[in-house]
Specification:
Layout: H1 3-25, H2 30-41, H3 53-73, H4 79-107, H5 112-123, H6 130-136, H7 143-167, H8 177-211, H9 217-237, H10 242-252, H11 260-288, H12 294-297, H13 299-321, H14 328-337, H15 343-354, H16 360-391, E1 403-406, H17 410-419, E2 425-429, H18 432-440, E3 444-447, H19 453-458, E4 466-469, H20 474-487, E5 492-495, E6 516-517, H21 525-533, E7 539-543, E8 548-549, H22 550-559, E9 565-570, E10 576-578, E11 584-585, E12 590-594
Parallel strand pairs: 1-2, 1-4, 2-3, 4-5, 5-6
Antiparallel strand pairs: 7-12, 8-11, 9-10, 9-12
Helix pairs in contact: 1-2, 1-11, 2-11, 3-10, 3-11, 4-5, 4-7, 4-13, 5-7, 5-15, 7-14, 8-10, 9-10, 13-14, 13-16, 14-16, 15-16
């Protein structure tokens, strides 16, 4: 590798890291920053870096690994959570913009093949960015969230299948029936082999390695690289594109194939190597191919494609969503959420440019379309879901229930006793003796480190609605809340904050983990733990006669020089919920506290 290539690689990586970090900081996916910085440092503007053979090879390998990682992250079981509604949203959100994109290109003088590529690009939706946006907007526990995730999954998979069929005919001129049948036969054989390998051979390889006590992560990673690139090459040999083979390989690398810890470790390695290193090079260098001349020479086509991308995705979703019975307003919210494009769209557009199917101008338009539509998602989704909230039509999807409580100290056990009357409660504690004490009192308690994924998996945290961090250590409480927020997307997180536990316990940090303060104020837990241990406390229940906020209620009690710890609020049906900040207590609801 020449020194100039090393310098180019350094500049591209530095630019990708800086731009990606900046866009993530303001709430958008890193891919937007990577594409934009590619336009800035590439030939279109500053001309600091040009495409080289080294960058091309690394970026192409990066796309293969990226598609494998996307496959690993897909869970087809999630489809059942939205089933019919998700399928309708996916079909409407793909078919309508696909058709509009095709006709816009062909009616403005483009080829039919170019029209099909553009149709695919405007039809896909971004699977990779949905979870983060839904968490940030507090929508993960709504029906819309499950429909969006299912719709994105189906849309991306449908796009890849159609792309696979098209790629088989790209290099073939006039095709006759025998050639069509031969290509179709190759595709069928590939899918049969890939499915058989993923369902039967790969699990047997995993069992064999487990029986030999092979636990070296590097060995597993090397094996999976061979499988990913092997299926990619096989896809190329039958006339498909390698990204489809990589995607299918990733789909079959699931829990149960290898040991759970190995699977988690390998997924992280694929994430770090693809998204952290190689894929950003692809997206930055993709920006090199963007020409700003489209704003002068092809502005009308740019506006048309961006317009059909917006209108087609949103209108198509609304129309096809009507038979679900969930209403056109919810369909509008789903459509705005599905409007963002992402990695798959750019990959497909890049392949179309590489094969000469679309022009540099069309590619540039598709990049700008991806950027603009993705930027719109948080804005439009916030507006539509707030509209549904005001109308009382934002439906919660209560597939998650129950409470996971970090810490099994006496205060936590007392709170858990109340909450367990109507919901499942599981405790997690790093102290084995404390955990055994909780078990002796009839509670389920997992002994382990809260910051290790294996502990949270043992507690089945992904199935719970609420996480409560109730230790005397602010830093542990906040780190644990951040972990369950980022990895398991738990909708509700309540954290105890001590007033005397250092800067790490600042309430200002709670917003970064989308959490709320338990007890609605800073609390020094240790005296209350001692009170309960000594049985030197009294439990009080009062009925609220005037609607009030939890924070206002606590302040009113403190103003009377009362020392108390509010535990739960009891609604009219007798259901108990944790007493926390940013909640309100209705008339005739009860507050249970200790003093």
């Amino acid at each position: 590798m020449e020194g100039f290539d090393i310098l180019n690689l350094f500049i591209v990586l530095l630019a990708a890291w800086g731009a990606g970090a900046l866009t993530k900081r303001i709430g958008y996916p890193a891919i937007l920053g990577e594409l934009l910085i590619g336009v800035i440092i590439g030939p279109s503007l500053l001309g600091l870096v040009e495409t080289s053979s080294t960058l091309v090879i690394i970026s192409e390998a990066g796309v293969i690994l990226l598609m494998a990682y996307i496959g690993m992250e897909i869970n087809f079981k999630d489809l059942g959570k939205a089933s019919w509604a998700g399928l309708l949203a996916a079909i409407g959100g793909f078919v309508v913009p696909f058709a509009l994109g095709y006709y816009v290109v062909t009616l403005t003088g483009g080829t039919s093949m170019a029209g099909l590529f553009v149709g695919i690009a405007v039809g896909v939706t971004s699977l990779a960015t949905k979870s983060r946006i839904l968490v940030d907007l507090g929508l993960l526990d709504t029906r819309i969230a499950y429909v969006l995730m299912a719709g994105a999954l189906i849309s991306d998979t449908l796009a890849l299948i159609i792309f696979a069929g098209l790629s088989s005919f790209i290099d073939v001129g006039a095709v006759n029936m025998s050639e069509i049948l031969l290509i179709a036969g190759k595709i069928i054989v590939f899918f049969l082999f890939a499915t058989g390998f993923g369902l039967y051979i790969l699990p047997r390889i995993g069992k064999w390695m487990a029986s030999r006590n092979i636990e070296n992560r590097t060995t597993y990673f090397t094996l999976l690289l061979l499988i990913v690139f092997g299926l990619s090459e096989l896809a190329e040999l039958v006339g498909l594109h390698g990204i489809l083979g990589a995607f299918i390989a990733g789909v079959f690398i699931k829990d149960g194939v290898f040991h759970e810890k190995i699977t988690k470790d390998i997924t992280r390695v694929f994430h770090d190597v693809s998204i952290g290193f190689m894929a950003p090079i692809f997206f930055v260098t993709a920006g090199f191919h963007v020409t700003l001349d489209v704003f002068k020479t092809d502005l009308e086509l740019l506006l048309l494609i961006v317009g059909v991308a917006f209108i087609g995705k949103i209108l198509g979703t609304v129309l096809f969503y009507l038979p679900s019975g969930n209403g056109w307003r919810e369909g509008l919210a789903v459509g705005t959420g599905m409007n963002g494009r992402g990695a798959v769209e750019i990959v497909i557009a890049g392949i179309g440019l590489q094969k000469g199917i679309i022009t540099q101008e069309i590619f540039s338009i598709l990049v700008f379309m991806a950027i603009l539509t993705t930027l719109s998602v948080p804005i439009l989704l916030t507006w539509t879901t707030n509209w549904l909230k005001k109308r009382g039509e934002l439906v919660k999807q209560f597939s998650r229930q129950g409470h996971v409580i970090l810490g099994a100290n006496p205060v936590a056990l007392l709170l858990g006793k109340h909450l367990s009357e109507s919901n499942k409660v599981v405790f997690i504690d790093a102290n084995k003796g404390i955990c055994e004490n909780a078990k002796s009192k009839g509670f389920e308690c997992i002994h382990g480190n809260i910051l290790e994924e294996s502990t949270l998996n043992e507690a089945a945290v992904k199935d719970f609605r609420t996480f409560i961090a109730l230790t005397v250590n602010n830093e542990i409480n906040l780190l644990a809340s951040q972990f369950v927020n980022d990895v398991f997307f738990i909708p509700e997180k309540f954290v105890v904050i001590s007033p005397n536990n250092g800067e790490g316990g600042s309430i200002n940090l709670l917003s970064s983990v989308s959490a709320s303060t338990l007890f609605s104020s800073k609390v020094d837990l240790q005296p209350w733990i001692q009170k309960i241990q000594d049985s030197n406390y009294k439990e009080v229940e009062i009925i609220i006669t005037k609607k009030t906020g939890t924070r206002q209620w606590v302040k009113s009690q403190f103003s009377k020089n009362k020392t108390l710890l509010p535990l739960v609020i009891v609604d009219g049906a007798g259901t108990k919920r944790p007493f926390r900040y940013n909640d309100h207590i209705d008339v005739d609801e009860k507050v249970i506290f200790i003093e």
